[in-house]
Amino acid sequence: MTDTVDKAPAPAVPPEQIKAIPVRHYGRWVAGAVVIAVLALIGIAFSNANINYGVIPDYLTDGTILSGAWHTLYISVLAMLLGLVLGVILAVMRMSSNPVTSTVAWFYVWFFRGTPVLVQLLIWYNIALVFPTLNLGFYKDEMNQVMTPFLAALLGLGLNEAAYMSEIVRAGIQSVDEGQTEASHALGMTRAKTLRRVILPQAMRVIVPPTGNEYINMLKTSSLAYVVQFSELIKRSTDISSTSLAVVEMYFVASIWYLALTSVFSVGQYYLERRYARGSTRSLPPTPLQRLKKNLRMFNSFGRPEVTR
Question: What is the pTM of this model?
């Protein structure tokens, strides 16, 4: 009988390490190169154009241009407030069970969305041709004295905006579940209190994003007010170009101011949306700065794949 010799178990062989090799997206590099080439060609074309770029920084802070930028911001805020208040009223009228109020609201939206803003501004500015005198019983005056360029711009922009805001508010109200209204009525709340305390706060998450877009659009649409002689940014720029003959340069100055104003309010819109989106399962899309940081992190880690077992 032979003695059996216990042998030590063989050491475990570790598994081979796996290298994760990232996929090369050559199409992205080609597309990026093409875009850069096109942008370079556009830059070369404008650099060789007959444009005096040296006067643009001087006019950016000119008193006349600053006054025009302030008037643009001023009329945009007031017209947006008028459109928002009237839009809420029209939305409630549109959803009312009263056939008269709902029909009037529908006709309002149909008319103001179906006619150009420029035509509406011109109608308000020339309304004295139709009604030479404004007589309200307690107040009477010549229409030319009442309908100033500011009032014509405010009514033309604000009443047109109300038609779009009414549809935005109506969509936000209808996004709230009907059970919220029924529960509020069961607690003894009136329709007005239910709308103010229950429906509208929940509808704000749907109303705020398109409202921010509408205001940014209002900043640009206010440029049409120059046809009624309102001293906004385009009107001021045109006045300067008529004496300095720097036509294109002044349009560049106005464009820079519009870009600055819309950029500031775009940032504010993002944080306002994030505030009203609290509790939602969906997250807001990243900002360009956040997306740039993410791309830089991906670029720094390119070619250094993680090693996993």
Answer: 0.75
